[in-house]
Amino acid sequence: MPLSAQQKIIRQKEAKIGAHAARLATRYLHKNINRAFDVKNRGGVFQGKKIKPMLRASKVRPKLGEYVLLGLDTTSNKYAFMHHYGFEGKRDGSFVRFSHNRFSKEFTNRESHILNVRDRSIFKDVYKSSGAITYLAKHLAETRTESFQAKFNNLIVTLTQDE
Prior knowledge:
By secondary structure, the protein is an alpha+beta fold. It has helices at residues 5-36, 52-57, 78-85, 126-130, 132-162; strands at residues 59-64, 69-75, 87-91, 94-97, 107-110, 113-117. It has one domain. It has a two-stranded antiparallel ribbon with strand order 1-2. Strands 3-6 form a two-stranded antiparallel sheet. Helix 1 (5-36) runs antiparallel to helix 5 (132-162). The protein is elongated. The two termini are 20 Å apart.
């Protein structure tokens, strides 16, 4: 069923609201990741090469339905989720290639070993603490009343056309 002009306007408003709420949550999520690994221009263990892929992969995106916002989706790589929940287990051995010329050999075998990663609660209360829920509640109330009015008007139009 094609969207009416009102429904298109409502969809644009909901998309804009969802994008803003997603930005709020993404900023808070990135701040959480930086805080969890204590990264603040100190050149720590997770600085640079190890933290940037996690920051790039961690996003919150709006999920739109037919013409309303259905919710927000959080995506990230597996390492961020490992650090969120923690991991305790055996890490398998692997084949490692050294890319820098300072090493005397180019390849080596890594032995299997016990890996303990503590839980850092990166994703805990992202939507609530970032203010995305209050923003959505405030702004979606207006557009949802408009969408109800648009559906009701379309229902009246179709009933009058059937008669």
